[in-house]
TrEMBL record:
Pathway: Carbohydrate biosynthesis; gluconeogenesis
Protein residues bound to Mg(2+) 1: D15, H22, D56, Q98
Annotated binding of Mg(2+) 2, by residue: D56, D57, D135, D242
Name of the gene encoding the protein in the UniProt record: fbp
Residues annotated as the enzyme's active site: D15 (proton acceptor), Y237 (proton donor/acceptor), K240 (schiff-base intermediate with dhap)
Protein name, entry field: Fructose-1,6-bisphosphate aldolase/phosphatase
Residue sites binding dihydroxyacetone phosphate per the record: H22, K136, R274, D295
Sequence similarity: Belongs to the FBP aldolase/phosphatase family.
Reaction equations catalysed: beta-D-fructose 1,6-bisphosphate = D-glyceraldehyde 3-phosphate + dihydroxyacetone phosphate; beta-D-fructose 1,6-bisphosphate + H2O = beta-D-fructose 6-phosphate + phosphate
Domain of life from the UniProt record: Archaea
Annotated residues for binding of Mg(2+) 3: K240, D241, D242
UniProt lineage: Archaea, Methanobacteriati, Methanobacteriota, Thermococci, Thermococcales
Quaternary structure and partners: Homooctamer; dimer of tetramers.
Positions of Mg(2+) 4 binding: D241
Amino acid sequence: MAVGEKITLSVIKADIGGWPGHSRVHPQLVETAEEVLSKAVEDGTIIDFYVATCGDDLQLIMTHRKGVDSSEIHGLAWKAFEEATKVAKELGLYGAGQDLLKDAFSGNIRGMGPGIAEMEITLRKSEPVVTFHMDKTEPGAFNLPIFRMFADPFNTAGLVIDPNMHMGFRFEVWDIKEHKRVILNTPEEVYDLLALIGAKSRYVIKRVFPKEGHKIAKDEPVAVVSTEKLFEIAGEYIGKDDPVAIVRAQSGLPALGEVLEPFAFPHLVSGWMRGSHNGPVMPVAMHQANPTRFDGPPRVVALGWQISPEGKLVGPVDLFDDPAFDGARQKAVEIAEYMRRHGPFEPHRLPMEDMEYTTLPGVLKRLEERFEKIE
Ligand code: F6R
Ligand code: MG
Ligand code: MG
C-alpha cells in the first residue's frame, strides 16, 4: 500500500451496555473489542484499529482494503460487539446488548442497530483525518458544524482565500423520513441547503464531496456522517442514534483548525435526557465524555489521525483536550443550566413528535371523558 492507493476508513459504534446507567463504557468492553480486532489485524482482515469511547458508546475505528459496506468488516464489528455484550451481561451493565437489534448477522450491519460512518479514499501524500464521536444526540447534530466547515466563510477562511477551496463543495443530504436524497452545490445553492438542513431532525448531511476540478476526485467523500435512525429500525425506543462522523482535512480541504472551529460554539442539539430534550453539545476530551448532569449535556469528542502510507492509524490525538475549548465547555454548562430551568416545558423538552418517550397518549386517553367542547 502506498500514496495513491485506496483505503477504507470505517467507524462503527454501538451502545452495548452502560456503566452505570447510560453514562460510560466499562474498560473491560474496550479490552474485549481490542482483543477481537487485534486478531483481525493478525489474520489480515484489517490493517489497523483503535477502540474509543464516548459516553455509553463503544467506537471501533478501523482501516482496511475491503471497501465500504464490506460484509467481512461489518461482520467483524458485529462480532466485537457480541463478544463485548457477553462481558456486559456478566458484569450486569445497564442495557447490555441494547443496540444489537438482531440475533444473527446477515451480511450488512446497516439496519441492525450500530451506527456506521465509512469512506473509501485515495491516500494523499499526507492524509490528516478527524473522527468525531457524539453521545446523547442524533445525526442532525452534525448539520451545523459540517455546514460551517465546508460552506461558511466566517468559519473557514480557506473558502475565501485558498484557491483550492474557492470553488466550494457538494453536499449529499438525506431526507431520513422519506428515504430520499439530494445533492446541493455550495456556494450557489447555500440557501436551499440551509432551508433543508435547518430542519435537522429530518434532513441530515450524509456526505460532502469536492467539485469537479478539485485535487480530490469528485466522487470521493471528504466528510461522512452516520445516519442510522434506531427508532425507525426497531419500531420502538431503544436510545438515540448517537452519531459519528469522519472528516478529511488540509490541502484544499478545511484546515484542522477550521474543522474544529464550529465546536467552539456549543450549539443546541436534540437528545440529552431520555432522548427528548434540547441542550448544548459540549466539546470534550475522551476522558471527559461521561454525561452525568441530567444524563448529559450531549458530548462530542474529536480524535485526530494521520493515516500512514501503509494505512496505519497514527494517533489518536484527543483534539478537544485543549484549554482553547474551556470557554466552549463553560458556555455549555451555562446553557445547560439555563435550559434546565424550563423543566418539562418546550423548547427544553422536545416537541411531541420528536420525543423518544411519551406518556401523552395514555394521559389523553384517561382524560378523554373529562374533555368538554368549547363553544
Ligand atoms: C438518552 C439516554 C438516557 C436514557 C435515560 C432513561 O439517550 O440514553 O437519558 O433515556 O437514562 O433510561 P431508561 O429508560 O433505560 O431508564
Ligand atoms: Mg445507553
Ligand atoms: Mg449513547
